[in-house]
Design goal:
Number of strands: 0
Low-confidence stretches: none
Strand content: under 5%
Structural class: mainly alpha
Largest sheet: none
Helix content: 40-55%
Order of helices and strands: HHHHHH
Mean pLDDT: 83
Amino acid sequence: MKEIEVSFTDKNVTAWGGMKLMKDMVDSIGIKDFMSGLDLPEKGSNRGYEPVQIIECFWTSIWIGAGRFSHSAYLRYDKVLQEIFGWKQAPSQSTYSRFFQKFSWKPIPKCLCRCKNGLSIT
């Protein structure tokens, strides 16, 4: 059996280092540029988060296993993930709640709400 070498480092580590691959994929398809062109709700204060960052943080929290807004708080404490994605800080659960409450079904055109079986969302 091969021995495993264990050593100490001064670098920050995370259990989610593989998220670098997801970051590279998101960058390669240009989704952030696409979202920047959408009519997303604007931040309410000068300390607020950019809408695209809120969505990116939310996706990341889902990718690492969050099942509810309170689980997304893990991102606030993982400095390595924040560094990988280039965030100064990750939003809190209340930020997600307030952001997603700004959306409604009304601005979605009827043609986008039709299901494959002909039913529509009303």
